[in-house]
Amino acid sequence: MRVQTVEMHTGGEPVRIVVGGASLPSGRTILDKRRVAQQELDPLRRFLMHEPRGHADMYGVLLVEPDLPDADLAVLFMHNQGWSTMCGHAVIALGRFAVDRGLVPRTEPEARLTIQCPCGLVELWVEVRGDRTGQVRFLSVPAFAHGLDKVLDVAGIGPVAVDVGYGGAFYAVADAGQFGLDIRRSRLRELVDVADAITLAGKAQLALDHPDDPDLAFLYGTILTDDGDGEDVPSANVCVFAEREVDRSPTGSGVTARMAVLHRRRKVAQGQRRQFASVTGAVFKAEIVTTERVGLRPAVRVQVSGRAHYSGESIFTLEDDDLIGRGFLLT
To answer: Does domain 2-140+310-315 have CATH number 3.10.310.10?
Structure first.
């Protein structure tokens, strides 16, 4: 095995982009490809995401053939546990990558492209100044609040009220202060333990649904917040998803979900902007651009902007007799 990658990060959150040496999944639609990847490409995911080449918080993308005629690119997202349906930080990195690699026309002051994600088509604009690319903004798929003040019986904690938002993936959103925690000051392990306990309870107790496809109806993780709305100062949050994975960025799909929840609570209106900060201090800006409906639910489309940076290029190999090197995690 010999796989080539481009390494990037968005706000400190890694994006490992596969550019060569990997098998691609078959399938008529991108959700078909995601199902095939889950069944057949987990050795590749473990090879790239797990140790000794990755770690418990690694994140990667696999470019596949789009099935939507309006899509410039299509992508599958991978992490420590499996294959996601949406990832805003990775989309931001892919925007720069696509323009810099000549996969889409390079136009000033912004290059436009579309990326088909498992959750739907995402539109992007990439800042272009001469030979440099910079800020990236994307327009989300329709996002909505699935429920407010849903009470979960969380092991070791008790009853906990959470909001549930969808921004390409479903998240439980909760104020960290109710657990005596501070996003900026508490130990990360304490935040992870609480968030993971909420996710486990939510997976068992929440009945989620999405009108587009049942494959989208799963709880991806939990976002703990400082209970701010991001209007005057960035609202701090930490997103814990998949198998206790911690997002170093503010989380693009999570910010989208938070904006949908804030809109449902009438704390943000169409045309208004908010800011959200991660545990690294990285900031994403968000704005509700339009309102619409998803099935019977009121929904919004959110524009999220942030910056990604290159960190290197890699060639990963595996010797035939290296069983350990196929991938493992120590957590």
So the answer is: yes
From 87, 117, 119, 239, active-site residue: 87
Q: Outline which parts of the chain fall under CATH 3.10.310.10.
A: 2-140+310-315, 144-305
pLDDT (tens place) for every residue of the chain, 331 residues total: 899 999 999 999 999 999 999 999 999 999 999 999 999 999 999 999 999 999 999 999 999 999 999 999 999 999 999 999 999 999 999 999 999 999 999 999 999 999 999 999 999 999 999 999 999 999 999 999 999 999 999 999 999 999 999 999 999 999 999 999 999 999 999 999 999 999 999 999 999 999 999 999 999 999 999 999 999 999 999 999 999 999 999 999 999 999 999 999 999 999 999 999 999 999 999 999 999 999 889 999 999 999 999 999 999 999 999 999 999 999 8
Is residue 87 annotated as a catalytic residue, yes or no?
yes
Please tell me what DSSP assigns to residue 217.
Answer: -
Q: Let me know if domain 144-305 sits in CATH 3.10.310.10.
A: yes
